[in-house]
Design goal:
By secondary structure, the protein is α+β, with helices and mostly antiparallel strands. The protein contains seven helices and twelve strands. Strands 1, 2, 3, 4, 5, 6, 7, 8, 9, 10, 11 and 12 form a twelve-stranded mixed sheet that branches. α4 runs antiparallel to α5. It starts with a helix and ends with a strand.
């Protein structure tokens, strides 16, 4: 896998020509930017900026996104900045305008076929596909236990996607004696080479037992069957080493810059 070629393919198909990541959202081009726009429970933000964006144009583009956020009444808006984006000081300009950086993530990619092999689960643990609201509630509960964060937004997104575009999402929950201990989902992007792995997390006492790897393998098989060549992950510092051992390659880093409106 040639890293530069795959990064260029990712930039072109998943960012510059991005598709909405769920029902009820739209992708808009705003001058040198591409952004996604939806409701307050959806992800709203900039996914791509032109490599020709210069310092003067960057400040104007940032101001336009702040105005856009205010006009729609969105509580927050994200600019997803990649390490190779231009100008080189774009992160500093976003901070100066009131955007707050969250922890950086590593953009990782692997050939889907590489990860489709069987993985043994611990005794008493089963994987259950999430196909309805009840399953989504278990998934959100596992997410809350794994990350210590509110799973309400995830629950809303998964229920909405299952109801309106179930063919584009694969959601899973791992149960240990009936209790949710891990969950994850895959976003399938029709017409592209990529499938995104999102939200994989396992509660602390069940980590290191192969559940995370089993969730990856399950989703890799489905992605490969649907014709997607690559799996893509925006990985946290916790997940990145695990994924690297599985065969993922780093294409760079990405940092979410979040603008929150004053209430």
């Amino acid at each position: 896998m040639r890293t530069d070629d795959v990064r260029a393919l990712y930039d072109r198909t998943m960012r510059e020509h991005a598709r909405p990541d769920g029902p009820g959202v739209r992708v808009e081009r705003d001058g040198p930017l591409v952004r996604q726009v939806g409701g307050p429970d959806d992800w709203n933000g900039v996914v791509w900026s032109s490599p020709d964006l210069d310092a003067e144009g960057a400040d104007a583009a940032i101001a336009a996104q702040i105005g856009h956020c205010a006009a729609l009444g969105l509580p927050e808006f994200e600019w997803k900045l990649y390490a190779h984006d231009r100008p080189a000081d774009l992160g500093d300009r976003l901070r100066a305008a009131g955007f707050v950086p969250e922890p950086p993530e590593t953009l990782l990619v692997a050939p889907a076929e590489l990860l489709t092999g069987p993985v043994a689960l611990p005794d008493g643990v089963t994987l259950r596909p999430v196909t309805d609201a009840a399953g989504a509630e278990l998934m959100a509960l596992a997410h809350e236990r794994a990350f210590g964060t509110d799973g309400t937004r995830l629950l809303h997104q998964v229920v909405k996607r299952l109801a309106e575009a179930p063919e584009d999402v694969v959601a899973l929950v791992a149960l240990a004696d009936g209790e949710p201990v891990s969950s994850a989902r895959t976003e399938l992007y029709p017409g592209t080479d990529f499938a995104g792995l999102w939200g994989g997390g396992t509660v602390a006492e069940w980590r290191g037992k192969g559940i995370y790897r089993a969730l990856v393998a399950y989703r890799a098989r489905i992605a490969a069957e649907r014709g997607h060549r690559y799996l893509q992950v925006d990985a946290s510092d916790m997940s990145a080493p695990i994924l690297a051992r599985l065969g993922f390659t780093a294409l760079g880093t990405t940092t979410p810059y979040v603008y929150r409106r004053a209430r």
